[in-house]
Structures are given as C-alpha cells and as structure tokens.
Amino acid sequence: MRKCRAKQCRLPLPTKKASTPIQAAGFCSYDCATKHGLHLASTNREKVTKAKKTEARKDLRDLNRRKISWQHDQCQPVFNRLRVQEELQWFADRGLDPECISCGKTNMDWCCGHLKTVGAQSGLRYDPRNTFLQCNMYCNQSLSGNLTGNKNTRGYTQGLADRFGAVEAQRIIDYCETKTAAVKWDWQEMEAWRKEWNQQIREIQKVRMAA
Question: 49, 56, 93, 155 - which has most CB atoms within 10 Å?
C-alpha cells in the first residue's frame, strides 16, 4: 500500500489510480506536499552549512599547521609525555623506584623537568639530555625547576650527579650550557616527530603493561 511521502504524515493513499496531481506525486494533500518541500529545503540548508563549517575547520587547521607556534603547542605535551614514560621505564629497567631529579622523592606527580627552560634556550625544548623526571607541583612549578636546591632538597644539578655520577652529570650540564644556537623549526618535520613520539609512547606503555 502506498503511503503519503510526507514524513510527518505517512497516511495511506487511495488504492485506485491517482485522481489529482498531488496524489500522483505521492502526497495526500497540498499541505503535506508543502511541508515535505519545506523539510527538504531545511535539510539541504543544514547539509550545506555543515559542509561549509567542515571545510572552514579544515582550512583553519591547514593554516595552523604551517605556524611554528601552533606546532609547538601540539608537540610540547607529546614530547613531555614521552620523556616521562622513558624515564619511568629507565628506573623500571634497573629495578628502582622512580624519583624526582631535584628532590629525590618518589611516588610524585611526575612531569618532564627541563634543566634549561624553553624561554632560556628554546633549542633544547625537545632534547632528552635537557629533560629528566621531576615532580610537578613542588620542584617544577613552585621552585621553578629547583636547579640548585634548598635546605630540604638537593636540586637538579646535584640530582644529575647522584644519578649518573659527577663526570656524566657535568657532561650533561656542559652540553646544555653551550648548546645555545638558534634552531630553525620546520612544521613538517615537527609533525613527523609528533607521530614518531606518539608511537614510541604506545610501545613503552605496552612494555610496561606486559611487565
């Protein structure tokens, strides 16, 4: 049995041959035909609007991708997560509890602590030799990295010596002190880094879950 094409109606149409142009078109009345037309027009407008918004978002993303500042905003948190995972794995491989490079405490709110800040030497922002496991709220934020320590903590530089020995610690410090040349960032290269870092994070997490 044929039914009215209007979704809001769907009443059965006469089984006999359509007696009016409206019935021939599949509607029971002019009112239903009008409502159906308005509904289609509204749906089409919504589709066009959605397509335009999608295209606008794509255009904006393509524009942002070429901005180094935008790439840094995307890359920095991924690199930081990677370094935390690498550091946790470093301690796990040696059967040690992870500890903060600056205060030596364990079981903390871990973050990626930079020896040389991004503001001071931006070229070291993605350099593993400039980043080690650190507690976030106390040493990283409250003490601005806690480089030299205080009456309650050893500090970042002494933490390097405690962990790697005086010779290697000095080598790390000298490297970070002297690597001051400006870096020419490339947005396509940064996107490739981010993809690689995310893959490395997944691989480390798999190892840790299997352990």
Answer: 155
Q: What's the token pair of residue 6?
A: 């209007």
What is the distance between the alpha carbons of residues 40 and 150, in angstroms, rounded to a whole number?
71
* 39 and 18 share one domain: yes
CA distance 82 to 90: 12
Domain boundary among the residues 33, 65, 97 is at 65
Do 105 and 195 belong to one domain?
A: yes
Q: Give the pair of three-digit tokens for residue 57.
A: 């978002």
Q: For 4-60, how does the pLDDT look when each residue is reduced to its tens digit (9 = 90+)?
A: 888 778 778 877 666 678 877 888 888 888 888 888 888 888 888 787 787 878 877
Do 120 and 52 lie in one domain? The reply is no
Full domain range(s) for residue 21: 1-65
Structural domains of the chain, count: 2
Q: Are residues 90 and 166 in the same domain?
A: yes
Q: What whole-number distance in Å separates Cα of residue 79 and Cα of residue 72? A: 10
Q: What is the pTM of this model?
A: 0.74
Residues 170 and 125 in one domain: yes
